[in-house]
Amino acid sequence: MITKRKEILAVYEQGPEAVVTLVTTLYDIIAEQQKIIELQAARITELEERVKKLEDQLKKNSRNSSKPPSTDVFVHEKPNPQSRRKKSGKKQGGQKGHPGTTLRMVDDPDEIVLHEVHKCSNCESLLETLETND
Predict the structure, then answer these.
(1) In this structure, are residues 21 and 30 in contact, taking their beta carbons and an 8 Å threshold?
(2) 126 bridge partner residues
(3) In terms of Cα–Cα distance, which of 35, 132, 82, 28 is closest to 20?
(4) What does the alpha-carbon distance between residue 74 and residue 18 come to, in Å, rounded to a whole number?
(5) CA dist., res. 30 & res. 32, Å (int)
(6) HEC states along the chain?
(7) How far apart are CA 22 and CA 11, in angstroms?
(8) What is the Cα–Cα distance from 58 to 77, expressed in whole angstroms?
């Protein structure tokens, strides 16, 4: 394309037909560029719509749509629940000096209950009774 002043003046000195040819060529170039601009504008609009749809998909999660929680990708996990109880400073479990209460075995119980097993709980086969010498 002719851009320098000297080149334009050279075309002007060649006569009116050379100027008409130059202007016609420039109009053709402008028309081609206009077509490219229109195609690019249409493509930009199409891509903007696609980006909007994808951003909307990213914004959806199980809390604001009917999607299951397993599809949540960019959702931050919930923080672990924290107790509202105040710490006392004591160790866990029984404290020193506290008398414990445990159910002790006695030599003479009030009642004895025998629970006999006749079948194996795994294979359901009958068990033979063995007599033991006490």
Answers:
(1) no
(2) 119
(3) 28
(4) 65
(5) 5
(6) CCCCHHHHHHHHHHCHHHHHHHHHHHHHHHHHHHHHHHHHHHHHHHHHHHHHHHHHHHHCCCCCCCCCHHHCCCCCCCCCCCCCCCCCCCCCCCCCCCCCCCCCCCCCCCCCCCCCCCECCCCCCECCCCCCCC
(7) 8
(8) 16
User: Which amino acid would we find at residue 117?
Assistant: V
* pTM for this model (two decimals): 0.44
Tens of pLDDT along the chain (134 residues)? 556 888 889 999 999 999 999 999 999 999 999 999 999 999 999 999 999 999 988 888 877 888 888 777 766 667 778 888 888 888 888 888 888 888 888 999 999 988 888 888 888 888 776 555 55
